[in-house]
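Problem statement: downstream parser choked on a complex file, so we are re-checking the raw output for the glycyl-adenosine-5'-phosphate run. The parser issue turned out to be on our end (a line-ending mismatch), but while we're here, posting the original submission so the record is complete.
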Amino acid sequence: MIAEEKSNLSDNKVMDKLVSLCKRRGFIFQSSEIYGGLEATYDYGPLGAELKNNVKQLWWRDIVKSRSDVVGMDAAILMNPEVWKASGHLSEFHDPMVDCKNCKARYRADHIDLEKNCPSCGIKDWTEARQFNLMLKTYYGPSEDSSSEIYLRPETAQGIFVNFSNVVTTSRAKLPFGIAQIGKSFRNEVTTGNFLFRSREFEQMEMEFFVKPDQTTQWLEFWKKERLQWYKSLGIREDRLKLRPHDDDELAHYAAACFDVEYQFPFGWSELEGIADRGTYDLEQHAKHSGKKLTWFDSIENKHTTPAVVEVSAGVDRTVLTILVDAYHEEEVKGDNRVVLKLNPKLAPITMAVFPLVNRDGMPEIAEKIVENLRGEFATFFDAGGSIGRRYRRQDEAGTPYGITIDSETLEDQTVTVRDRDSMKQERISIDQLQSYFRNKIL
Ligand code: GAP
């Protein structure tokens, strides 16, 4: 079947179309929607939760399970407020903010040109830029005074640094080694937007790789290549990915150098992940503030060293957004518009949908049996509602790579048609060959 690609990056409506597809198919909803929503917070629906989970599982597999030099952990979101004093987040983790005195719109001062008029009302009347701390505050325990104020973590990394000794002692780790975790982080961003790209509650996948300080450069190079390759392995188009070094004035307070993996979103090249040389900053800060020794004992050189850190820090939600943007296609098929998410089968929430052509002659029963046989190994879905063409279109929008249809021929020769989402080509496969057919294609 001939399909002509219609969508391209210059189509600035891609983001709007994607947001509406995500809602229509149950990927992502506005949080608390029935109460008018809460700006920049999102809920993942059935398909979105599967997609997000697949991203996290692949990261964990590739960073933790398949490496002998990385271990995982899972720290609490709420931490002793002293952590944020020591890490520098209380004094340094802020963005410059300006307000338009005329229309009260608020902007990040480093995101707009203050020599120009306000983008929302067209008048130039700015307040002075002032620093705004990005940590979200809450109260811990029953009293609401300054002694019970604590913060929701703005990065998962600090949970790793404060557990450095616990992990080293219990896992008997030797340099170089990494500690990884996936979890929620919160930032009271001055401005939010571009759907999942910048929100106030998001998830991070972070790994702190501890090395001898004189080996930092080589490990930074290693992880830069490794992480760029990881995004390519998810099927993201290579020409839309690049590594960009930070300029000195962009560096976070803890970083001596940083490289961003960037993706070319419809709204421009933007950060997906940061790969940073954090040096010995964090362990030294925590050692100083806590009075505890946070070093590693080198038994060959017979001395204690404070390891340096190369950090890889990715956003789960930004990765999900990238995957969705990259997979979104519109094609003209026989005069009709086909919307299709060309998701990599490793990521797709549903791997194969099984359709009885009609709801009689034993076809639904055969379909359900196929679903049961493939379930466990693959994410399968049974759909008997509506015309076969409509069912295919629904699954195209859900990003399901394969459709299996049971028809009258099945009743005679025990074969089914397998439809490929991207080429829309169909082939007949014997039911008892389905498992090995898909194993060869996907695993
Ligand atoms: N521990 C280092 C750190 O947190 P970062 O560059 O501030 O570094 C790392 O954040 C990643 O976390 C970003 O590359 C992005 O993917 C994700 N991220 C940060 N802020 C975000 C936000 N407001 N919304 C969604 N994702 C965010």
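For whoever reads this later: The pocket of glycyl-adenosine-5'-phosphate is lined by residues 155, 157, 187, 189, 198-199, 202, 204, 206, 271-274, 311, 313-315, 317-318 (CB under 6 Å).
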